[in-house]
Amino acid sequence: MTARRLIRFGSLGYLALILVAPVGLIFWRAFEHGWHPFWVAISNPDAVHALKLTLEVTLVAVPLNTVFGVLCGLAIVRHRMPGMGLVNALVDLPMALSPVVVGLSLYLLYGRQGWFGPWLTDHGVRVLFAYPGILLATTFVSLPFVVREVVPVLREIGTEQEEAAATLGARAFTTFRRITLPAIRWAVAYGVVLTTARSLGEFGAVAIVSGGIAGRTQTLTQYVQASYDNYSQTSAYAAAVLLAGLAILTLLLMTKLRPREEVHGNRGA
Amino acid sequence: MAIEARNVTKRFGDFVALDDVSIEVESGSLTALLGPSGSGKSTLLRVIAGLERADAGDVFISGKEATALAPQKRGVGFVFQHYAPFKHMTVWENVAFGLSSRKRPKAEIAKRVDELLELVQLKGLGKRYPSQLSGGQRQRMALARALAPEPEVLLLDEPFGALDARVRVELREWLLRLHDEMHVTTIFVTHDQEEALELADSIVVMNKGRVEQIAPPRQLYDEPANEFVMSFVGPVNKLGDAWVRPHDIELRHEPNGSTREAQIERVVRLGFETRVDLVRDDGERLHVQLTRDEADQLELDAGDIVYLRTRHERTFTA
Amino acid sequence: MSQLAVDAARLPRARGRALGRPALSSGLALGYLSVIVLVPLAALSVKGAQGGWHHFWQVAWNPESKAALELTLGLSLAVVAINAITGTALAWTLVRDDFPGKGIVNTLIDLPFALPTIVAGLTLLALYGPTGGVGVNVAYTRWGVLLALLFVTLPFVVRTVQPVLIELDREMEEAAASLGANKLTIFRRIVFPHLLPALLSGVALAFARAIGEFGAVILISGNLPFKTEVASLYVFQRLNSGDEQGAAALAVLLLVISLGVLLGIGGVRRWAVRHDR
User: Fold this and answer.
1) What is the pLDDT of residue A255?
2) Is the pLDDT confidence value at B238 over 60?
3) In this complex, how many residue pairs, one in chain A and one in chain B, have their CB atoms less than 8 Å apart?
4) What span, in angstroms and rounded, lies between the C-alpha atoms of B100 and B109?
5) Which A positions 37-66 lie with beta carbon below 8 A of chain C?
6) How far is C97 from chain A (nearest CA, A)?
7) pLDDT exceeds 60 at position A251
């Protein structure tokens, strides 16, 4: 029994020191003087703009990656075609890649001397230091999550139900809408939650392509950094707490959606 | 002919699942595709349903060329081995699916589904989800679902494979009655020769992607076309080059002309029947099936030397 | 291991006529992936390779970049070692132990996945920085960078090892015990070999994350060359001083390491499938 206690207190102690205490502390710091300072800090125009920009990016990146994620999952699991091995490998890459590398790649592609940069500039499209660049960076880093959740579920449900629908006269799209999609919906929902969390929190890739101009191209995470660098700790903590609150909301949603395999059968209609 | 497959070949990579297979199935019949696993029987069924596209050969359904037709347009009902229930739909919605995806009027769908649920004895369970049904009930739901769009042909892939023995026997009888009522042309796949013999009008025996024999049950049992059919359908003994059924052997205590000698290893009493396990002096083992009375009269005991005479001994030239 | 087993079972032949048009969804998926991921990385690689191999090394390999890369690798290896132990211990605690609040702890494990990295860095500074008031100050030190990396990599090993531990057949351990093995022997010879593939995947993911981490370390490291400047910070700093070539060169190295780790994980998975019953 002593060994068990040692492992329990060792591992939980580690968790407390590394995770719980620091995260708890910023909440305490943000609210130690009540709601008012927090509210003042968070309603500063730059902060509000940063939050808006972050949400605008997230609201586009998440649907894009959700549609792609489902399509890509179907392609990987159902259609064994040449090139799918490559797709399967590439999909994981954003998870293993430094966000700085992502940002730099976009910077080099859309920059003044990049492959697309000059042509786009000539046509009046600004990617770097503007919304499209931030969107591209965010989409890149949050790309794998829906795919990764959908693929194992698609494998697990197999093709029998879809085949059954086909023999019953359902056309491909009907089958997708009425059979495949309901079967993977919890996986999609879970993937969407993860994609959203990642999109809201992206920092490194965006830091390179956005320029971080306060009130214009600064996302909420960049606002945290800028505030900290400007010794405006109250603002930094307030924005950080807002992001942390969103993260905790994500966690709660994840917990709610996690045991999805068991509920597949009975949560219908 | 309700269904015809002509010279169908299907490969999965290097594996030849169907090798130039041709079968014909009469309208209204109940046909079994019988064979060991890997014999190609399920693949043939899937080719007929359009779930698998043959590499070569043609498929005709009700006289119409169906080779390139999508499964949606073949008018076949298919019951999957594990039933493939739509887990997120109720029993009622499952059965209605084929009709609702054809956009039939609501009232017609409701009427038909209720009829079918009654037919498969699931009335009152329409609001349940498949996970709340027993294996046999799921089976019947799958059957009702396949029958709902009024298919010309019903295809069943190992329909009783996933059920326990008692339910299996019940369902067999029930399916037989259903077929007698509905007269829809039915093909079912099975590896169980007893099931095929009991249910089918006609049996297609398959092995290694080829058709070994097509015949009614009785003919298949009495006049097997080759060694494979002989050994796969019904129990069998091999005596040198000859094959003989265990119930086609007589035992006596005295030698007599053409009899062969063997020693009794064990006598197993199985209710009405008694099985005698024998070993010959060249090490060959065989089983003999006797009625209880026959066995009692002979007073057989382990260790006894007996002499056997065969009826209907069969040899096949390779 | 269930997922891997399923993969293995379904791999040999995905049967059936695909529903819908395979070319359509595959084409769309591939096109999207190319626009978002492939083309930018190609642009990076081309930029990095500009001027040939010799030039690449000249740019990529200067004392400062070398120090940054060495520090990054060293810290990432430390992260791997620490996570292997703490991650396994946490997974064990969550699966085999019982204590009040277990559900909350289980949920908390994922927090570093959900928390923006910049927030992670800030929280660590708040407690372990100059104004933390707990008597330690790791700001602008390698310890601080290590702490940040441990924070963001915490879930990986727990979340790969935990499901394997849940599915592990307890009868094997009981059998070993009935054969006279003590607890340590049972762990070493029965449990550990089963955990190994998942553990390797977990530490590989943690390694890849640690190699490239940026947001969590930017505040805490202070970005001191030769002391706390890790590879991603070096790339960022090169770019900010207008040296695209130098930034691209080290970024290409990071990309290669990430690809290597992914291939490694793929290899571990295939190996695990082959040896898993």
Assistant:
1) 84
2) yes
3) 85
4) 7
5) none
6) 8
7) yes
pLDDT value for A257:
82
Do you know the residue count of chain B? 318
Residue A72 exposure: Cα atoms within 13 Å on the Cβ side: 30
pLDDT tens digits for C10-58?
Answer: 333 334 443 455 667 778 888 888 889 989 999 999 888 887 888 888 8
Residue C253 touches chain A, beta carbons under 8 Å: no
CATH 1.10.3720.10 is right for the domain spanning A34-263 = yes
Write out pLDDT tens, residues B133-186: 998 899 999 999 999 999 989 999 998 887 888 888 888 888 888 898 888 999
Cβ–Cβ below 8 Å for C17 and B13: no
% of chain A at pLDDT higher than 90: 55
Model ipTM value: 0.88
Q: Is C222 left (phi over 0), alpha (psi -120 to 50) or beta?
A: left
User: How many whole angstroms separate alpha carbon B211 and alpha carbon C236?
Assistant: 70
- A267–B86: do the CB atoms touch at under 8 Å? no
> What residue segments make up the domains of chain B, in order of their start?
3-229, 236-310
| Residue in A165, A167, A171 nearest the CB of B76 | A167
Interior angle at CA A145, CA A62 and CA A163, nearest 5:
100
Partner-chain contact B82 A160, CB within 8 Å: yes
Beta-carbon contacts of A261 under 8 Å, excluding residues fewer than 6 positions away, are A156
For A:198-257, CB contacts with C below 8 A are 200-204, 207-208, 221-222, 224-225, 228, 236-237, 240, 243-244, 247-248, 250-252, 254-255
Q: What is the pTM of this model?
A: 0.82
Provide the CATH number for the domain formed by B3-229 in this structure: 3.40.50.300
Nearest to A163 among B84, B93, B101 (CB): B84
Indicate the fold that domain B236-310 takes in CATH: OB fold (Dihydrolipoamide Acetyltransferase, E2P) (2.40.50)
Render the burial of A106-116: b for 16+ CB within 10 Å, e for the rest.
Answer: bbbbbbeebbb
Distance from CA of B128 to the nearest CA of A (A): 9
CB contact under 8 A, B53 and C13: no
Put simply, whether C210 touches A (Cβ < 8 Å) is no
